[in-house]
Fold:
Amino acid sequence: MLNCVYGWLENKLEYRLLKIKSIMFMKELALMYKEFQNSYGQSEKKDFKETIENLFAIKFKKIANGVELVTERDELEKQLASVKVFAGNWIMRENYIIPSADNKQCAIRYILSTDKGGNYDIMAVLSSVDGKKIDLIDEVYYQIQ
Structure:
């Protein structure tokens, strides 16, 4: 009987450790996204093609305030370049990263401080089907006065 209880507890602990590892991975993906945003925001002419391929899925989508901005990974750099023309350089200051328990989504709230466009409070949900690359960013934002 004791071996049965011990085995059950051991399996439950392994399950919890796997769950914790998966939660930490989604948080790591969000941190990698933050690093990418900051690098892109401060860069003048660096090539980000490899970084984008490593971080985002081929069928990546980006939605902002209900408007679909990007429908595949190859469109992302063009979209970010258009933001840079409007806003200038930027830095992303993290406020919160909240991973989901199923390792498929992560909420991230941050302030985006730009040189020309002001500051924005952004709440984004990052989704990853396989837990390895970002498939979707669905964000809402408003400019801070």
